[in-house]
Amino acid sequence: MVTSNVYDPQDENVVQQENSPDAMMAVKRSELIFKYRMAVGLTQSELAQQANVTQKTISRIERGDRNVRQTTLKKVYQVLGIPDEELEALKAQLDT
Question: How does pLDDT run across 55-64, given as a tens digit for each residue?
């Protein structure tokens, strides 16, 4: 498991928090989607419209929400032109 440091304002100390593989995948996926969206010059609203989802859904994806349907993600990947190889490489990174 991967751990990350989280600041707890209540006791002004750093608390370690474990991140599951699913959480790490969601974070990496959100970074990838944001990078591609910026590269093609789309706003969240424009991407949402082209992928036939809501802007709120795109926002949730880019914030690293783990509860996103695979069908929704595939629509976003398709609009952005994210190749399957890039997604497989992302999965492989997290498996090591």
Answer: 999 999 999 9
